[in-house]
Amino acid sequence: MRNPAFCLQCDDGTLLEHLTKDVSITIDDLSVIVPAVEGWHCPVCGEIEFTERESSQRYSEALAALRTTANKNRAESLRAMRKKLGLRQADAGKLFGGGVSAFSDYERGKTQPHKSTVLLLKLLNKHPELLDEVRAA
Ligand SMILES: [Zn+2]
User: Fold this and answer.
1) What is the whole-number distance in angstroms between the Cα of residue 90 and the centre of ligand 1?
2) Model pTM score
């Protein structure tokens, strides 16, 4: 165990603490607890410098599984919002940018849409009467 270091993420002199503790990972509305993660933990931002392989591997596997589920949920949500607006994938790609195959890629989880695209789709799903205004812009 080396001497405590400063958190490189915070970059403000926050000291890391060597602990074994349960760590929560959250993506969108999904969360998972990874129990007993050993390493240097930042008390402010949650950054972890792993000190043993087993914790690092369990954390990485939990994160990968959560990302897979979150990406699937995002893709399904995107498809549902697009369909609710009555847009074909190619039309959505032209309207929101990214090209005719963009929504095909998003909905297969191949790539992620920009946050602004998701925000605009969510807004239009709450206010579909604005779609004509967006089309005209
Ligand atoms: Zn930090």
Assistant:
1) 42
2) 0.77
